[in-house]
Amino acid sequence: MKTPFKTLFVAAAFAMFATTSCSEKTQENAEATAESAATDAATTTENAADATANAAGEVKADMAPEAGDTAVVVDKEADKLVEETNK
Predict the structure, then answer these.
(1) Cα–Cα distance between 13 and 23 in angstroms, integer?
(2) Which pLDDT value is given to residue 1?
(3) What is the pLDDT of residue 16?
(4) What parts of the chain have a pLDDT lower than 70?
(5) Please, what is the end-to-end C-alpha distance for the chain in angstroms?
(6) Strands (E) located in the chain
(7) What's 79's DSSP letter?
(8) Phi-psi category of residue 67: left, alpha or beta, with phi > 0 → left and psi -120 to 50 → alpha
């Protein structure tokens, strides 16, 4: 069976158009996915920063001296032994 040249040319042109259209759609989907991932990462980072700031604020509030506190903290290595002193 002999196929005319024009038919082959039209089929090749259609195949090229279909491949290009799919590639463009795939590219658009990839760009949208990348943009969405970047937005999600930025949101997650912002939420983590907020959580860290809140945790730091809570620790600072917990460590604030209260009325009646008489303890004194000395930054000294204990050499694997904790010494207790009598009152």
Answers:
(1) 15
(2) 47
(3) 67
(4) 1-6, 8-22, 78, 82-83, 87
(5) 110
(6) none
(7) T
(8) beta
**Chain Cα centroid distance, residue 47:** 10
Task: Provide the pLDDT for residue 19.
Answer: 64
**Distance (Å, rounded) from C-alpha 12 to C-alpha 59?**
69
What is the rounded CA–CA span in Å between residue 85 and residue 72? Answer: 13
DSSP at 87? -
Q: In the prediction, which pLDDT does 6 show?
A: 65
Query: Residue 10 has which token pair?
Result: 């039209």
Rounded to whole angstroms, how far apart are CA atoms 72 and 67?
14
Rounded Cα distance between 62 and 80, Å, is 27
- Rounded to 5°, angle at Cα 79 from 76 and 81: 105
* Residue 73 structure tokens: 């903290």
CB neighbours of residue 29 within 10 Å: 10
